[in-house]
Structure formats: structure tokens, C-alpha cells
Amino acid sequence: MTRRPRVLVLSTTFPARPDDATPRFVLELAEAMSDEYEFTVLAPRVAGSTPRARIGRVDVVRFPYFPRRWEGVADGATLPNVQAQPWRALELPSLMSLFMTHAWRLARRLQPDLVHAHWLLPCGVFGAVLRERFGTPLVVTAHGVDMHALRRQPFEALRRWTLARADAVGTDSAEIAAIVDELGARTPARPIPMGVNASAMRDAIGQRNPVPGRFLFVGRLAPKKGVSVLLRALARVPDATLAIAGDGPERVDLESEATRLDLGGRVRFLGALGRHDVVAQLRDAYALVIPSLVAADGDREGTPVVLSEGIAAGVPVIASDLAGAGERISSGVNGQLVEPGSVDALRDALEWSLDHPELLDKMATEAGITALRGITLADTADGYTDLYRAALGTGARA
């Protein structure tokens, strides 16, 4: 029997359990490709994780990086955690050095055929070091924050150094692919958004039962998500309500803003939800709102996974005209696009959707035919299978 090639995945974000609220796209991609490849994921320790675990067909190795009592910068998204709690920057030196140390040791022990680093910074840098030392072919995925934030030295030099050593690069959107190519990537970047298992989502949703006027936001409560804009728009649409599924560094400020805007019982902060509860919210949602914007530090979305989740679930989508959403949605045809950061434009879109429920449903049906093309989990797995094969064919071991 032919041995499957061994892949070492480096990721700062990975669920402790299959049903927790942490984004699952790294896990789901590995599971979708497990017929052809054998995966081991290295990630920082988080609450509820164990040093060794097997989730589905994926082996997971976790490492501690700070005294457990204070450890937390790697819970969720690292950069927003530091922005929300600047003292957590004290954790970064040990996180970076210990991640590299454990990646080195694991690479020596496993002798992987390929390294796949999610996020150019920092994991791509670690993968590039392994490629330099062991000659292991390297695939890097640029998701967004790693390309848009920290656009200064020495981070730009680290991006260029890493891209010059990567055998293949995948990105969350065509916009990010263009940035990667401008930085002098060794090979042209390929846009491959992180997709959703569309058939499984449809089965989980079953019969939709949308509540009139109930809008839904799903995501981390960080500046680039634009939830503050959504709250201000909602305050001017009195017949609308909003469920916010997510947690993050902006939650306290957003709750205060909802109170200041006198939104009262029209907004519910549900916190971070597991997969089953997110599905329930999608089943009841009148429309999914993705109000992304460009944050003050330059950070912005790639192609949000919730976009493909919402489309697969049959939920109408109202989104900012940015990157992946702008590349997938044709406004007025298979969804609604609004100017990023514009309260007026988002208010108008919410009001229009309340006045045109039948047209909204037609757009959701059309999105399932057109916008979902290329952003299912099968599409993502096919794309990365191509990148893996290309990297294994060009990446000679030292």
C-alpha cells in the first residue's frame, strides 16, 4: 500500500474541539484532503485543548508558550487580542520563539513531505525556515490580516523573504493574490477561498424559517468586521432586529454603543457559538449581514467563510463591496453590496430588503447557483491538492 505524503500544518488558529466556536477552516480543509495526505497540525495551546489530540483523521499537537494563568494572546486572533489588551504583547516573544522551536523539533521527528503554513506571518516565516534547513517543500496560505496589517518594516521584509521561498501560495481572494505577486512571490499566487461543505450545510439547515426583519451577523468582534457601522445603520431602521453571533475585543464597546443608540431589545449579543447554534441562527435569519471595512491599521477581510456558509444555507446576503464578497456578489442579482463603512448605504440596503422579501429570496436562490461556485469545501480541497502536487514536484529536498 502506497504511503500517503505527510503534511505538517502550521497554524495560529485551530479549534480545541470540533464543535467549539473557533474557526474550523484549517481543520476542514485537512479532513477534506485526508484521503490523499496524512496531516499533523501544530498550534498554540488554548483553553480546553490537550497536548495531543486526534480530530477526525487529523493529528493535532499543541504547545504551551506562557504561564497558563496569563496565556491567551493566541486565543482567537492574535493581532486583535494585542490591540484590545496591549499588555498581551508580552506574550509574543515566547509565542514566536516556542512556535519555531516546536516546529523545528516536529519537522525533525515527522520528516514531513510538505509543510503548509496558514498566514504568511508568522507561520509562513517558520515554514520558510524549515524549507531552508530541511529542504521541505512549502505551501503558504495568505488569509488577509497577514497581508494587510503591519505594512511596515521589518514585516514587509519578512513577507518578501518568505514568499521567495514558498513553492506555492494560496490566497483568500484575488485582491490578496495581487498583493502577493507584487511582493515578488516565487510562483504566482492562486486565489482559493476557504470553502464550506455545501451539502452538509444544506442538510443541517433543513427547512429555513426566516423571522421577518431579523438580521444576523456572524464573526469575530474586531474593527475590520464593521459591526459598529451595522449598529448605527440598524438604529435608523426601526422595524429591524439583529442577532450578533461572535465574541472578541470589541464586544464591550459594541454593547455600550448599542445601549447609547437606544437599540434596547432589538439587538442580541449571543457570544461565540458552536457550529450547531450557528446553523440554528442561519435557519432563522431574514438576511446575513457582512459589514466589513478597512480597519485603521489597514486590516481587512479576504473571503469570509461565513459568506459561503450563508449562501450554502440559502440565506440572502448583504455585504460590503470588499475583496472576496465583492468578487463573488453581483449586487441586485445574487445579493446586495454596499459601500464599506457607509452607515447610509447599509441602512438603505436593510430597508430595501425589508420592503422586498420576494426579490431577496430570489437573490438567495441565484447565489446558491452562481456565487457559491468556487467557494465550496470541495473547490478549496481541489485547489490545494493542485498546489500540493505542484510543490511536491518542484520542492527538492536538500
Using brief descriptors, characterize the structure shown:
16 helices; 398 residues; alpha/beta; 8-stranded mixed beta sheet; 6-stranded parallel beta sheet; Rossmann fold
Task: Give the CATH architecture of the largest domain.
Answer: 3-Layer(aba) Sandwich
CA(first)-CA(last) distance: 27 Å
CATH fold description of the largest domain: Rossmann fold
Strand order of the largest sheet: 3-4-2-1-5-6-7-8
Helix content: 40-55%
Mean pLDDT across the residues is: 92
Quaternary class: single chain
Task: Tally the beta strands.
Answer: 14
The CATH superfamily of the largest domain appears as Glycogen Phosphorylase B
**What are the low-pLDDT stretches, counting only 5+ consecutive residues below 50?**
394-398
What's the number of structural domains?
A: 2
Shape: globular
Order of helices and strands: EHEEEHHEHEHHEHEHEHEHEHEHEHEHHH
Q: DSSP helix count? A: 16
Percent of residues in β-strands:
15-25%
Characterise the protein shown here.
- The protein is α/β, with parallel strands linked by helices and 398 residues long.
- It folds into two domains: 6-195 and 376-394, Glycogen Phosphorylase B (Rossmann fold, 3-Layer(aba) Sandwich), CATH 3.40.50; 198-369, Glycogen Phosphorylase B (Rossmann fold, 3-Layer(aba) Sandwich), CATH 3.40.50.
- Helices cover 41% and strands 16% of the residues.
- It is built from 16 helices and 14 strands.
- The strands form two sheets. It has an eight-stranded mixed β-sheet with strand order 3-4-2-1-5-6-7-8, with helices on both faces.
- α10 (251-260) links the parallel β10 (241-245) and β11.
- Residues 394-398 have low confidence and may be disordered.
